[in-house]
Design brief:
The complex is a heterodimer of chains A (526) and B (116). Chain A is mainly α. Chain A is 74% helix and 0% strand. In chain B, α2 packs antiparallel against α4. Classes of the chains: A mainly alpha (526), B mainly alpha (116). Chains A and B meet through α5, α9, α10, α12 and α14 of A and α1, α2, β2 and α4 of B.
Amino acid sequence: MTVGDPILNISIFAAFVVVTLIIVLRASRSNKTANDFYAAGRSFNGGQNGTAIAGDYLSAASFLGICGAIAVNGYDGFLYSIGFLVAWLVALLLVAELLRNTGKFTMADVLSFRLKERPVRLAAATATLAVCFFYLLAQMAGAGGLVSLLLGVNDRVGQSVVIAVVGVIMIAYVLIGGMKGTTWVQIIKAVLLIAGAGVMTVWVLALNGFNLSALLGNAVSVAGEGILNPGAQYGVTGTSRLDFISLALALVLGTAGLPHVLMRFYTVPTAKEARRSVVWAIWLIGLFYLFTLVLGYGAAYLVGKDTILAAPGGVNSAAPLLAFELGGSILLGIISAVAFATILAVVAGLTITAATSFAHDVYANVIKKGAVPPNGEVKVARITVVVIGLLAIIGGIGVQGQNIAFLVALAFAIAASANLPTILYSLFWRKFTTRGALWSMYGGLASALILIIFSPVISGAETSMFKDVDFSWFPLNNPGIVSIPLGFLLGWLGTITSSVKEDPRIAAEMEVRSLTGHGAEKASSH
Amino acid sequence: MPHDDTGTHTPGSAIDYIAIEQSPDFIAHKRRHRSFVFPLAVAFLLWYFAYVLLADYAHDFMSTKVIGNINIGLILGLSQFVTTFAITTWYVSFANRKLDPAAEKFRNELEEAERA
């Protein structure tokens, strides 16, 4: 099945890539120090940074994944929108400002402020790399599905080539632009994505007399009454209901532990701007998720579940198919280009986070113990970008055809299990110790990974990565309900069993700084 | 500068942070922050999980139609959006009015102490 004109689709996409690359090149002229490369000289204001956060956050999972989930599974897909949005309150109320006041580039800066530095940095970097990797796999799966739809590429080999091309472009983005470049890409992309989804939303509503109830009624006439009611996907068995809770837990607690989101709190000059960023992000992201509700039901009505599932890219193709239904080849080309740019931009943001974490936390602070030659750290970060790019290409080829919003929820579960407990404990619990941090991070990470490996995601079910073998023993698709409480529990247990107490002077200093902003890294002037 | 090039913390600053942390002013500042964000965080999480449990176990209730085809499930889901926006606005106004002035006062004092 081929939708639209492949040449037109790709022309529009290519034009977009060229424009953004030019902007990246222009933005990168003053890219010299580590501060520039990672934190963009802390020169962005809250509005710009908030838009960039929205750009980082609204990935292929939000656009293609949620639209598809609602179009195919109805109301149950709506949970993704709600969880992804409400999660921002955790970041706003508990994490963003305090983190901005105590850190420099990465999450590990904050954790190592008063805990034993090297083991904590190593653990934080390991968790960061794991989260980024799962997030990247999801984006790659999205890219493969989208392009297979655009170009009518149905065979696996063709899709693999496409993923490799995306990977190369992404590496170029990050290498040339650094964080400042990627911030501009995120801003441009966020505006395009929200505008594109907005236009489609108004269009769908116009076709239904600007009446939400009429739209829902039309969706019911195609898909049946069940599409409006909860339970179509998760209400089937007791186990699947538990899976719904597990997913809800991972979604709401994952955001404030996502390393690429945490890093965005450092690209602004002050805690006040960090707060302003999150507020901007919440409004933009909330608006976007309201659009996805209309688009999901619009696709259920105008495209239909069976057509969506039969298309290349399956459930993830609902949004582009809806665009084709509304505005033919041209709208499909534009929306696909925006979706593609979305994936590219998110991948770039994730890659630079992983690279920063490795170069700054592992190389500079653990391997070199702080004695880094000038620009050595940036050099390692660049090499890491290339390595991660290659891994993402291989991994992306491996997970082709998987559901994106669902894969991203796994990254959220890992972030909520491995990162969030330690972040909250170290910001709010004075007695928290290094052992508590290590147990929590490694325990949360390992339990989440192990439960994923032995879940139906990987083996034993029809949708599994390996359909033909079955080594699964954990019944839920999302590990959050077990691994997140375990991460919190281990942090507490490790702390109360510690024989070594942490230095109270540093704990006091961290608390004073986190609440006052004293000594926080300032914007660099140039 | 209390930070070295690698972003790590180097102790040895002349400021007695323990004394500041135990000062009544700072304790009041900390309490102001926590007595706002903690109850609010608990409240929105309870509300979120109440919604999740209803959507998971009370299908009939959530499927009750209210206006046209709009059912209770959709209304509760959309009201999660409304409360998120409302809490955001409330917190920002609180932080601008109450937290920022206090934080700035401490920051100025600390910078002065560091210069001395």
